[in-house]
Write a structure and sequence with these properties.
The protein has 726 residues and is mainly β. 3% of the residues lie in helices and 56% in strands. It has 4 helices and 44 strands. A hairpin with a 5-residue loop joins strand 37 and strand 38. It is globular and about 75 Å long.
Amino acid sequence: LMDLMRRPHPLTWLAMLGAVLVPTFSEAAEPLRPARVTVPPVIDGVLDDAAWQQAPHVTGFKTWMPDWGVEMADQTIVYYAYDAENLYFAFRAFDREPSKIKASVASRDTIRPDDWVCINLDSFGDQQSLYALYINPLGIQDDSRFAAGREDFGFDTVWYSAGRIDEQGYTVEVRIPFKSLRYGGGNPVTMGVIFERKVTRRNEGGTYPALDPKAGTSFLIQTTPIEFADVKHYTLLEVLPDVTYSRQSAVQAGRLTRLSSGGDLGVSAKYGITAQLTADGTYNPDFSQVEADAGQIDVNLRHPLFFAEKRPFFLEGQDVFTLGGPSQHGTLQSVVHTRSIVNPLAGVKVAGKLARADTIASIYALDELPTSAEGEATDRYAHFAILRYKRSLSQDSYLGGFYTGREQGTSFNRVAGGDGAVRLSRSSYFGFHALGSSTRQQGVASAAAGHALGVDFTRDTRNLTLYFSGADVSKTFATEIGYLTRNGIAMVQVYVGPKFYPKRGPVRRIEVSAVTSPTRDASSGIWETYHEGQVTLMLRPAITVTALYHRSTEVFREKEFGTSGMSAAASALLTKRVRLQASFDHADAIYYSADPFGGRSSRASVTVIYQPSEKWHQSLALTYSNFDRASDGRRLYDYAIVRNKTTYQANRFLFFRGIVEYNKFRRQLMTDLLASFTYIPGTVIHAGYGSLYEKTRWDGAGYLPDRSFLETRRGLFFKASYLWRM
């Protein structure tokens, strides 16, 4: 990194220029002032409490989907109140066709296909991040954190809600403990809020206050202030003990044999250093996932598959690690991908604000390494250290810095640098990052240095989206904690996307886009090409169709191959009970091997989601891919995965789920059964059973392919934890 600073790259100069162009404009708005209540409302979904009779309210929701600034077809009223310990919100969502309201008694964090209302809450009032609290018409919750253009749905916090459908539509009540939020000091506490509603069958989304078409979907800079006077500031203390039991078996010499069994204890704790800053610690945690990752096609890959983080310890503060610049459209997708910490024995984390403008997040984890085939590990542990700092500027602008390090014996990987984003206008946003890496492999005396630079510019309005990005990732740049799909490239991307809104007919919105992205491969010096045209139609009542064609080339192992092709995708709510999602693409492709060659590849996916009742959910998904070699037309593989998932939600806390997944290419059948009770995040009981069957048989000397299934792995587990909040 020091060498990079001595010889600045042109993209570095652009980043420095953007960093000083910090706008100073702001818009004042009259704050919402909730009623302070002495008798809290009962959270039962019925708006008959005295608190709602005295609470102020807002209405007049305007659409931003499919078009902007139109009165929503049905009225929404939001009431707001508070006391010293909680925030309270209530929604009256009118619907002239209540029988068509889409709702389900579902497990937490699975309601996005339903109708819903949402409280987007900027708890610090600094336009840097949002809590998004979604509630469906039956009171089922979903929550997320939004920052720097990304929404993290892995986030969970403790809050309470209830909802009911009636002849006028539906009602929702919400209680949010101040303990569950990180918020600013002072008196009054000033936050920002946007209330949101989605009507699925019309593909209609609206907000209060109305979003400005000239500012696009930049929620952070369009909140309205809401004030809470004389709030009680807490010292938060949470303790989360957990107990687990598991038993694992695997086939040996044709017979299933127990490998391990036993119970374990672990504990995690959270302490609120201030209302803005928390410290977390964990020892011997259960970091297993309740549900196995859905199968993905894992053959003929240029880079590793990505799996989202789902483990609770790592989720709070995850939004702070979002990288400025072209992370979503570049090859450096993330500097911090905590799934790289596989089996931590212990961890410590501090996240939050040091002052109104200063945010930090740090993680240290001791990762227990697997043993070698001989039963011994060369190094017992790997040490992970992560440090993030952000300085808030005007509106949602910021400057920040990163350090990540993975140390294992004499080897290491360290990444350090800066990033930021600058709001140039209500519709325009500039981001950048400049990072350096130093990597030393085991047994190698010297370390390899590398760099990753990127800038991007976005302008988003009702009628037009413009995007520009540039990136330079050296051949020697590496990150063992982040997620990097490719190094050794320099690339530029330009996106132009006009949008149209027909007044009549079945089409409600048309998005047309053109993309060009030349990329230079550092090893060969060859320039790759990519030119794309795309059309997306939003049709009545709730259908979206996309068609795309691209002409492109790609370089692999210093050879250039054609990769041109076409694709199509569709999503439709066919009835209140049935949703369909499908995609297909066919293109020239590369077979990634030591001696690569060209061919043709087709990929397809179809998912049908059927909801026979509010409590019963059924989904069936097919994923398929193939590859034909160009020289002789020979098909090298047909890869198909069929996944069936059945869920019965007895009530909002308890569900039973069964998954059966067949991988035709691997000749494997996986089953996953789960019973789960979740009272609040942290207070849970899970019991699960899983098995793996393969089309093979033992002939006394080895395993041979067979038409019948042999159970080769089996496991069961039990987990219980209880959140003590003081």
